[in-house]
Design brief:
The complex is a heterodimer of chains A (240) and B (134). Chain A contains ten helices and ten strands. With 240 residues, chain A is α/β, with parallel strands linked by helices. Chain A has one domain (5-239): Rossmann fold, CATH 3.40.50. In chain A, strands 5-6-2-7-1-8-9-10 form an eight-stranded mixed β-sheet, with helices on both faces. Chain A is globular and about 50 Å long. Chain B is 31% helix and 31% strand. In chain B, the strands form two sheets. Chain B has a three-stranded mixed β-sheet with strand order 2-1-6, covered by helices on one side. Chain B is elongated, with a radius of gyration of 17 Å. Chain B starts with a helix and ends with a strand. Classes of the chains: A alpha/beta (240), B alpha+beta (134). Chains A and B meet through helix 1 and helix 5 of A and helix 1, helix 3, helix 4 and strand 6 of B.
């Protein structure tokens, strides 16, 4: 008894040069904003970029990017539509504005289904907006998709960083590469998280100041590219 | 799941099994498809016939559909999936991602979306038979 969908997934991803999973130990650290902005900046530099929102129960990248009213094309599979220069895939194409109350096994099945049917073609980067923590989507991604690298997002809160330590330790144990860590929503110049991150061997990529204006940029990619998040990501994009 | 994408996955998985079991040719492939997938069997069979590799040239594909049975986690009610009660948007969405059933289907007794899909979800390659390499 075999699930044939898992046999085809790596074939579907073979035209993708780099897969970056933007992840965090806990929610509310700005992961989706960073994933969306990173994808937009990479695309603005002429790269072929895909963005896949894997946070199935709380998807938000479609809101951040102001994407509404489009559907993927069917051509012997699903072709992600191109929006703002990105090939964009989200469960919201199918769930709309309704809630998707999925339990662990359902999240797993939906992820396997979408990875098996989505035809990304050739991409330089596929950015994955992950759900927070070490749940089913993270474990399935590690199990099923070869060559995924993780980019971890935290805040200056010790609470957020404690959960990052667990995620980082799991990834290291499984020998999954970690591109680095981004500290988001900084309110002062504290170096506490930076020091702790380096202590556990994480590449500290950037500190992003708290930007109260980021809320006004939600749904508007031009404004989003002028935020502090965008400015900082622009500086480190070559390291990703 | 889209029929063509599914056919590609079946051919790929059957070929992997044939390789592992040292089959020189595959004669029978049995596939069980959950009703929730709402797969059009004619399109799937056509896609399989077009995607057959040399090893699968003589293979017969036996496709079985498993009826979908749902059970409410909240009140314990059991019921059968009835596609005809869904509108086109919901039906199409579930066809592509069957878990979207949790978005559009509610327990007919208590209205909860928290139900278990007991049977009738997914695609399973049940058996791959053929002649072994000498």
């Amino acid at each position: 008894m075999t699930d044939p969908r898992t046999s085809i997934m790596n074939e579907r991803m073979k035209g993708i040069r780099k897969i970056i999973a933007v992840s965090s130990g806990k929610g509310g650290v700005g992961k989706s904003l960073i994933a969306s902005t990173l994808a937009l900046i990479l695309a603005s530099k002429g790269h072929k970029v895909g963005l896949f929102d894997i946070d199935f129960t709380s998807p938000s990248t479609h809101t951040i990017l102001g994407i509404r009213g489009i559907r993927p094309k069917e051509e012997e599979g699903i072709i992600p539509p191109e929006v703002h220069g990105l090939k964009y895939m989200s469960i919201t194409y199918y769930s709309g504005d309704h809630a998707s109350p999925l339990r662990g096994q359902d999240v797993s099945n939906a992820l396997i289904e979408l990875l098996a049917i989505t035809k990304w073609g050739n991409l330089d980067y596929l950015i994955l907006d992950m759900p927070p923590g070490i749940g089913d989507a993270t474990l399935d991604l590690i199990r099923l998709i070869e060559h995924t690298k993780f980019l971890i997002v935290t805040t200056p809160s010790q609470l957020a960083f404690e959960t990052v330590k667990k995620l980082a330790s799991l990834l290291k144990e499984l020998k999954i590469p970690i591109v680095g860590i981004i500290e988001n929503m900084m309110m002062d110049n504290s170096r506490t998280i930076q020091q702790q991150a380096r202590k556990i061997g994480l590449n500290y990529l950037a500190e992003i100041p708290y930007d109260p204006k980021v809320e006004e940029a939600i749904g508007n990619t031009d404004k989003l590219l002028k935020t502090a998040i965008a400015r900082k990501i622009e500086e480190i994009v070559s390291k990703i | 799941m889209h029929e063509w994408a599914l056919a590609e996955a079946i051919v790929s998985a059957a070929s992997e099994i044939a390789e592992k079991e040292r089959l020189k040719e595959i004669t029978h492939v049995t596939i069980k498809i959950g009703e929730l997938q709402q797969v059009d069997q004619d399109i799937l069979k056509f896609a399989l016939s077009q995607l057959k590799t040399a090893k699968l040239k003589k293979a017969k594909f036996n496709i079985e559909t498993e009826k979908a049975k749902l059970k409410c986690r909240f009140c314990g009610h059991n019921w059968a999936f009835e596609e005809e009660k869904l509108d086109e948007t919901a039906s199409e969405a579930i066809h592509f991602v069957p878990e979207i059933a949790h978005t559009y289907i509610k327990c007919p007794k208590c209205g909860s979306p928290d139900f278990e899909i007991l049977e009738g979800r997914g695609v399973v390659l049940q058996s791959v038979k053929g002649a072994k390499q000498p």
